[in-house]
Amino acid sequence: MPYICKKQIDMAKKVQPPQSLEFYTIETSSPVSNSFIGNVKAGFPSPAGDFINESIDLNDYVTSHPTNTFYAIARGISMEEDFRDGDLLVIDRMQDYTEGKIVVCYVDGEFTVKRIKMDEHGTWLIGSNKQFKPILVTQEDEFRIWGVVTHVIKTL
Question: Could you point out which of 19, 55, 91, 130 has its C-alpha 20 to 30 Å from the C-alpha of 28?
Answer without folding.
Answer: 19
